[in-house]
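Q: Could you predict the 3D structure of GNAT family N-acetyltransferase?
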Amino acid sequence: MNQIPTKWKTKRLIVADLRKEEIHHVQALYEKGSYIHQWDGGTLDEGFVKRCYLEGDLPPGGTKENFRIQVIRMKESEDLVGLLVSYHGHPVAESFYINYLSIDPDYHKQGLGQEVVEELLNMVKQHEFKEVRANVALKNWGAIRFWTKLGLDTINGIYGDSEYGENRFADIELVRKF
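A: Sure. Here are the predicted structure tokens for GNAT family N-acetyltransferase:
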């Protein structure tokens, strides 16, 4: 199966597979994004990055070989600014799944997320995937706007609570076909 490179670049960024010595710093970055749990009903996973590095964040029947956890750094300063977690071949071999994308809140509104995803979409298409999928909390309006602006604008499914409420949560799976 084709896979995205272990290291790739955009105009301002370098994206590369997580290294063991980065786990602590990347976990701290992940925790800076814990505000999303107000929209998805989740809780902070204090072992997320280490578990991803060691085992992966796998779908049912998935394999670690098809999993990637990558860090996003500024080219010039090498500052850690984001995290990309993805899976090659879920739910079918021709699908590329974006499990998680986060840009450090200190770097929001600079177009970095868009820059990463635009290059990622180009690579995924070149590697002959037929679609890209991402799961988004329905209450996370900013993320819904972000993904639909980048062409993940088809709703494949709605999962979670069936009725709206303050303590009820649901996600939508967005898809972009090539």
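Q: Anything worth pointing out?
A: The beta strands are 7-9, 13-17, 67-74, 80-88, 95-103, 131-137, 154-160, 170-177.
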